[in-house]
Amino acid sequence: MPSLIHAAVACGLLSLAASASAQVNGVGQKPYLGWSSFSQQTLDSAFLTQANMIKQSDALKASGLQAHGYTYINLDSGWQGGFDANGRPTPDPTTFPDIKAMIDHIHANGQKAGIYWIPGVEQPAVQANSPILGTPQHITDILAVPYRAGNAFGAPGTSPYHYKIDFSKPGAQEYMDSVVALFASWGVDFIKLDGVTPGSYSDDLSIDNRDDVAAWSKAIAKTGRPIWLTVSWQVDKDYQDVWTTYANGRRIDDDVECEGRCATLTNWPRIEKRFRDLPAWQETSGPKTGWNDLDTLDIGDGDLDGLSLDEKRSAMTIWAMANAPLYLGGDLTKLDETGKRLATNDEVLAVDQSGKPARQVLGGDLNVWVSDLGNGRYYLALTNMNATTTVARLPWNLVGLTGTRRMRDLWNHQELGPSVGEHEVVLPPHGTQLMLVEALPGHVAPTPTTSYEAEQGVLSGNAASYACPGCSNDNKVGGLGLGANNTVSIEGVYAPQSGAYLMQIDSLTLGLRSYLYQVNDGPFRTFNSGGSSFQLPSSSTVPVCLQKGLNRIRFGNAVSYPPDLDRIVISGRGDARLPSGTTYEAEAATLGGSVTAGFSNYSSGLAKAGNIGGGSANNVTFTNVTVPYAGVYQLEIDYLTQGPRSFFLSINGAGAKELSLNGSSFDDPVAKVLEVPLHAGQNTLQFSNPSGNAPDLDRIVVTPRVLPAVLGVSTQACKKDLH
User: Fold this and answer.
1) What are the residue ranges of helices labelled H in 249-399?
2) Chain centre distance of CA 307
């Protein structure tokens, strides 16, 4: 347990643990289902009104969603207009003239009502210095001195607008009790406490809302009303004991919505981020500890969602496998039939409500998640993280099985029959297969595993060893990346024979980061990670090609930020399955002329190549695109642009062909998939624009067409990684 958690205990922040349950007043034994206003608010700033909330409540009831368990109608930020005589927030009378009547209407529809608020006290209540209900104290009596920010929205200095409460002072808990009692008197069933730190992009103790969360939880218990409490957003995992003790749910990510940074509600990069961040939290979720909240599930608004049908299935699948709360966004009065069918698939909803959150057993291009239901029954999800169609192969021994006597596809409601040895399925772009499987009897022989500590590797440049109480050997390596020489090389990685092995990477980060790693000076391979702590490692496993004998694996990122590294664990006998596609990062290619490589948060490798075009010399050239046979391949091009731009693509020196592309953001990559002819062996692909501006370029992915892949042909053979 990291020292930061010990500090929390020492400060007395867990003093309520004996009397308070993580599942306050009996709510939260299962993740809730419902709807939240915030997604639609990002599109329509005038959306949050009492009249519209009543319409959403009526639409939820009429849609049929309610019969499948969707019952929560949650108001997000913007309902409040002022403060009462005791400094408690009150609704805006123009938009919410009678909030209790609105909540009564929601209850009459058989639903529950949620509300949004924040830690601390806002400036109008501070200036009024209102008396705290039932006490001799006033608002200024309970503020931390010197005045400072009371949540992540607070400004620096002593006039922060959002003021910090000192809960050691008389009247502080009573103030929180009075606020929650007011909400309870309206009939509130759910509270989202936002801007909570450590988290919310403030990952230190400079604000520190741990006492606030405990006080809100205690206040809820005093009402005697079953009110769900969620803390938000992207809370820091170092303080998980506080979040699991005092809240029913915690937002482990930032907002899923684009909020003006793209033309739709959300998009695939923001869904993919959940796949990357969730492994860090997968062990913390459950009926006794509360649930990992992945934010709004935007799947019911047609093209406005910014997701394809397969991407919507994949989104709902990872939410369900995580046992995350399922709350839709958008406008329920315009709910489309496709979204309704997705949201009301009872077999998928049963996954979400199972009380058995999944764990990731394989990361990278093919994500594999497994939930052990007991008695030889499992939920199993396979997700294609690329935009090319792929043939996914899952050896059953990877999940500890010899095979299955039954497989049921939960999205398509189909029985697939038994499977022995290996499961194979064709997955569409960003597509998912979600199954209930029943195992064959028998046990899988354990595979050899060897652990290699990062701090015992060869450290170069700025790389250094740091104490890490939560790491495997109490140490980690940081200072990696932002320069080709800032690396750690783990040497002496033994393989009994050449082939593909599994490499567990234990890394540490807050937010998205990426390694570009090399085996024996071979081609760069990418490991895209996420996380919520620099003290507690997150584990993810990817296939890696090793040569017989001793190997060296070097981790770094010349252009952008990699995670800190705890250790790697190598397992297997050289017969692991590789993904069918191969990724080539633009920032690691040959950059000509004015082209530059730089940070890009949602791009693979956490970087992209920009300033392409405006002259034939300003190009990106991939010189080592290697395939096993001559033929036509799928080529995924991940690019970024705001408005129309063009690449001119030349393959092996042939005449360049123009690719006219479009997009709405230089922040979030968009995929374009072509079919292109390639030679056996190495190929050269060049992206340019001799006269105009080209999009920025994230990466390319080369994947065989489906039929060759079904026949066992892959672009990624170990022999080309080990040359």
Assistant:
1) 268-277, 309-321, 337-343, 346-352
2) 16
DSSP for 562-612? Answer: PPEEEEEEEESSSBPPPPS-EEEEGGGSEE-TT-EEEE-TTSGGGEEEE--
What's 659-714 look like in SS3? Answer: EEECCEEEEEEEEEEEEEEECCEEEEEEEECCCCECCEEEEEEEEECHHHHHCCCC
What is d(CA 237, CA 240) in angstroms, rounded to the nearest whole number?
Answer: 5
- Which tokens sit at 529? 């990670």
SS3 track for 221-234: HHHCCCCEEEECCC
Query: How far apart, in whole angstroms, are the C-alpha atoms of residue 164 and residue 168?
Result: 12
Residue 380, CA distances (Å) to 262, 294, 446 in order: 32, 19, 21
The amino acid occupying position 147 is Y
Q: Quick check: 73 and 50 in contact, CB under 8 A?
A: no
> What is the amino acid identity at position 46?
A
Q: Helices 309-321 and 268-277, interaxial angle, to 10°? A: 20
Cα separation, 463 vs 460, whole angstroms: 6
Alpha-carbon distances of 90 from 48, 116, 638, 659, rounded to whole Å: 15, 12, 47, 55
Q: How far are the Cα atoms of 58, 73, 102, 113, 185 from residue 105, in angstroms, in the given order?
A: 9, 11, 5, 10, 15
Q: How many CB atoms lie within 10 A of CB 285?
A: 25
- Better-predicted residue by pLDDT, 514 or 11: 514
d(CA 327, CA 69) in angstroms, rounded, equals 11
Neighbours of 289 (CB within 10 A): 21
Confidence class for position 706, pLDDT limits 50, 70, 90: confident
Model's pTM, two decimal places? 0.94
> What tokens were used for 665?
């953001």
Q: Can you list the alpha helix ranges (DSSP code H) found in 224-299?
A: 240-246, 268-277
DSSP symbol at 305: G
pLDDT, tens digit, 9 for 90 and up, residues 47-71? 999 999 999 999 999 999 999 999 9
What mean pLDDT is reported for the chain? 94
Show Cβ contacts of residue 241 under 8 Å, excluding neighbours closer than 6 positions. Answer: 5, 8, 9, 14
Kindly give, in sequence order, each residue whose CB lies less than 8 Å from that of residue 359, ignoring residues fewer than 6 positions away. Answer: 279, 282, 283, 369, 370, 371
Instruction: Write out the two tokens for 1.
Output: 């347990």
pLDDT at site 717? 65
User: By the 8 A CB rule, do 280 and 307 touch?
Assistant: no
N- to C-terminal Cα distance for the chain? 43
Report the alpha-carbon distance of residue 605 to residue 476 in Å, rounded: 21
Whole-angstrom Cα distance, residue 635 to residue 564?
32
Residue 569 carries which side chain, given as an amino acid letter?
V
Indicate the helix (H) or strand (E) that contains 388. none
Cα dihedral: 229, 234, 236, 237 (round 10) = 80
- pLDDT for 587-629, tens place per residue? 999 999 999 999 999 999 999 999 999 999 999 999 999 999 9
The Cα-based distances of 676 to 118, 298, 686 in angstroms read: 53, 34, 13
Looking at residue 289, its amino acid is: T
Say how far apart CA 142 and CA 121 lie, in whole Å.
10
User: Which pLDDT does position 716 carry in this prediction?
Assistant: 58
